[in-house]
Amino acid sequence: MATVILLRHGRTAANATGVLAGRTPGVALDEVGRVQAERAAERLAAVPLRAVVSSPLERCQETAAAVLRRQAETALTGAEIDEALSECDYGDWTNRPLKELAAEALWKVVQSQPSAVVFPGGESMSGMQSRAVAAIRSRDALIEAEHGPGAVWLAVSHGDVIKSILADALGLHLDLFQRIAVGPASLSIIRYGAERPEVMASNTEAGDLAWLRPAEGPADTSADVAVSTVGGGAGHAEPGPTPVERT
Hints:
By secondary structure, the chain is of the alpha/beta class. The chain has seven helices and six strands. The protein is about 30% helix and about 15% strand. Strands 3-2-4-1-5-6 form a six-stranded mixed β-sheet, with helices on both faces. The chain starts with a strand and ends in a 43-residue tail after the last strand.
C-alpha cells in the first residue's frame, strides 16, 4: 500500500491573531510559520517523496516549496495543485475574528454537530470532507499503481481539511472530528489498505521519519491487506543506512 503524509501549512498572521482566513488570497506564512515549514521539510528530507500535492492557497504552496527544496533524492520540480485540497469555503465567515464568530448560533453547531453545518454563503463541512477524502483516496491509488506499494507522497492542506481526512481514516463520524488536533506544520500519516486505512501517526511535530523510506529489493505486498497483529506487533523495523552512509 502507498503512504500519504498530510502536512498542514505553517502559521500565518491570521492564525496568530485569531482571524478565520478561509480562502482569502494573499495570506502568507509569517516568520514563525516559515520556521515551522523548514522544520517539517527537514524531517521529510529523509523520505524520497513520489509526489507533492498542495492546496492552491499561498500558505500551502509556500510550505510545499520548503519541502521540495530539501528533496535531494527525487526529481520533483514543483507541487501539483489540487483544488479539492483547498480550505473550507467559510463564506460570510471569511476574514472575521474567531472571538466574534464564537457569539454566532452556528458556532455551537460547528463544535458539536459539524455534519449539519452549511456556512452562510459557503460550503457544508460534510461537502468539504467528501471532496477532500475522495481526492486523497483516488490520488493514493494512482500513485501506488504507478510507483508500487512502497511509494510515499505528500499532501499539503489545511487544519479542518486534514482533520476531516483523519476522521474518515479512523472510521469516525464527522461530528467527532473536532476531537482531532492538527497543529501548524504538523505531519499525519495514513496508509490505505485493501481492507481499511491505518493511521500511522497524527499531529506530529518532531521525530525521525526514516522508517518511511521504501525498503530495497522486491516490494513486500503482504501488508496490502491491513491485519491487526494480536498483542500489537513488533513496530517499525530500524531504518537502514542512508545512501550517503553506504560504502
